[in-house]
Amino acid sequence: MSDSNTTAPNTALTPSGGERRDLIILGGGLVGMTLALAAAKAGITSHVIDRADPADLVAEGADARASAISTASWNLFTNIGLAERLKPLGCPIDSIAVTDGMKPGRIDFTPKPEEGSLGRMFANRDLRIALFDAAREEPAIAWHVRTEAVRRDRGPHGVEVELADGRILTGSLLVAAEGRQSPTRDEARFALAKWDYRHRATVAALFHEKSHENTAWEIFYPAGPFALLPLLDDEQGRHRSALVWTVAEKDAAGVMAMPDAMFVNEVASRMHGVLGAISLAAPRMSYPLRFHHAGRVVDERLAVIGDAAHGMHPIAGQGLNLGLRDVGALVEVLTEGMRLGLEPGDAQMLARYEKWRSLDTFMVMSVTDGLTRLFGIPGRLPSAARRLGMGAVQRLPALKRFFMDEARGMSGKLPELLRA
C-alpha cells in the first residue's frame, strides 16, 4: 500500500490511468479506515483518500480524546484482525455508574462475569495507530494521503474522483466518511435534521489517587453531563481516566481559559472525591455539541457513513459505535450482493443498506437526544422525578438488561461482523 496509485493483482487500468477498485472511500479516519479493512477481509478493494498526514494524526499529544468501544464494535475489530494489536491498549469497562448530581438513587450497570465487559476505553491515537498499521499491510487498500478530492462524478457505469494533484481514481461505489462537515453529502443535497445544543464538550485526561476499578461514571448536572471514563494506568502506574465535561456555550471560553489549578479544582468539586485527589494528565480540548441526522444515506453510487450521516451528543458514548455499525452493515450488504454477481454500486444493495440502518440510527439518536434534554431540566422537582425513575430501573432486572444491551451495542439486527 502507498500514498500514490499502485497496481494490485487482478485490477484493470482505466483509460485515464487510474486503478479501478470496488470502493472509493473519502475520509481515512476511524470509520473510513475500518470500512476499508473490513471490506478488504471480504475481498473488496478500495481507494482511501484523506487530506491529513497520518503522522500528524498519531503524533504524541495531537488528540487527547478517548472512545468507548462497545462489545459489538470490539467484535468487529476482532473479526477484522485487530484484537491482538488493540487488546493490550484498552481498559475494560466493567460497570457504569449513572447518577443525578451525585445525589441518592444512582443506577449501577454491572454485567455478570460470564458476559464480559460493557466495552473498552481506547485512546483515539491508539485506535488510529492500529488501523493505519493494518492498512499499510493490506494490498486491497490503496491509501492516498495529504490530498483531497476536487471532483466527484457519479454515473450509471461507475464513479470517478479527481485528486488535487490531477490523478484520476475510478470505482463502482463512492463512500463518504468525511465527518460532520462532509462536502460529498452536501454536494448530493441530502436533507439534514439538525440543531445546536449550545453546549461544548471539554475533554481532558486525569490522574487520580484511587483506582477507578474499571468503572465509568456518568454524572448528570443541569448544565450538562460530566463523564469519567476509565483508562489504563500509565507506565509509572498512575491511575487515569478520561474526562468529558459538558458546559454551556456561554461558559466554555471561561472554562478553557482557567489556569490548570483552577480547572482541576472545578473538576474535583463535581467528582465529590470518588477517585480521590486529581491532577491533569493531558491538555484540554473543546468542541461544540450539535445534532444532525441525514434523512437519506444513499444516492446513485453513493453511501454516506459515520458522522457524515449522523452526529449526536456524546452523552451515551455511541457516536463512533454507530458509525462502526454502518461499516458492518455496508460490508455485509456488499458481500452478499457481490456473491450474486451484483457490483458494489448496485441500487438494490444500497437501498437495502439504507433500510437496515435507518431504524437503528433513528432509535439510538432519539434516545440520546431525549436523555440530553431530560437531564438538562433544572430544579428540585425534575431532579426528584429523575432519581425516582433511576431507582425503578435499579430495582428492575429486565430494564437494566435492556439498557446494558444498548450500551454494549448488542440490540437489534446486528451485522455478522459485529457478532461474537
Automatic annotation (TrEMBL):
A molecular-function term among this protein's GO annotations: oxidoreductase activity, acting on paired donors, with incorporation or reduction of molecular oxygen
Oxidoreductase listed as a keyword: yes
Record GO cellular component, one term: ubiquinone biosynthesis complex
InterPro entries reported in the protein's UniProt record: FAD-bd, FAD/NAD-bd_sf, Ubi_Hdrlase_CS, UbiH/COQ6, UbiH/COQ6_monooxygenase
Keyword terms, alphabetized: FAD, Flavoprotein, Monooxygenase, Oxidoreductase, Ubiquinone
FAD-binding domain: residues covered: 22-357
Family membership: Belongs to the UbiH/COQ6 family.
Name of this chain's protein: Ubiquinone biosynthesis protein UbiH
Species: Novosphingobium barchaimii LL02
